[in-house]
């Protein structure tokens, strides 16, 4: 159990630091009302977890690696609590249109990104 928690914690640390750095980079390069940093991280996180789980489904990955990458890294990397807060803040600032665009585009594009990750593994991981 300790090994499992250390794997998840290590992955979570790496994911959280990566999320912070990537969000900061995107937000600095493209400062706009739309939260591109968090949006990009959420979509990339969905894509990555699709790949990780796709590999896991193909038995190409150990349980420990899945815990490190899916539960740990992707869990620390994705930012849906921040996403919800930003939607609320946009709405409060009177930017209801951007708020709704952000809400629905994150869900739809995230869903499609998970599917794309799973599909890529299926296509390229042929035994």
UniProtKB/TrEMBL annotation:
Location within or outside the cell: Cell membrane
Keywords: Cell inner membrane, Cell membrane, Ion channel, Ion transport, Membrane, Metal-binding, Sodium, Transmembrane, Transmembrane helix, Transport
Catalytic activity, reaction form: fluoride(in) = fluoride(out)
Parts of the chain that traverse the membrane: 35-55, 67-88, 100-121
Source organism, top-level taxon: Bacteria
Positions with a binding annotation for Na(+): 75, 78
GO cellular component: plasma membrane
Major location category of this protein: membrane
Topology class, membrane: Multi-pass membrane protein
GO MF: fluoride channel activity; metal ion binding
BP terms from Gene Ontology: cellular detoxification of fluoride
Activity regulation, per record: Na(+) is not transported, but it plays an essential structural role and its presence is essential for fluoride channel function.
UniProt similarity note: Belongs to the fluoride channel Fluc/FEX (TC 1.A.43) family.
NCBIfam families xref list: crcB (TIGR00494)
Protein's job: Fluoride-specific ion channel. Important for reducing fluoride concentration in the cell, thus reducing its toxicity.
Protein name (Swiss-Prot/TrEMBL): Fluoride-specific ion channel FluC
Species, as recorded: Halalkalibaculum roseum
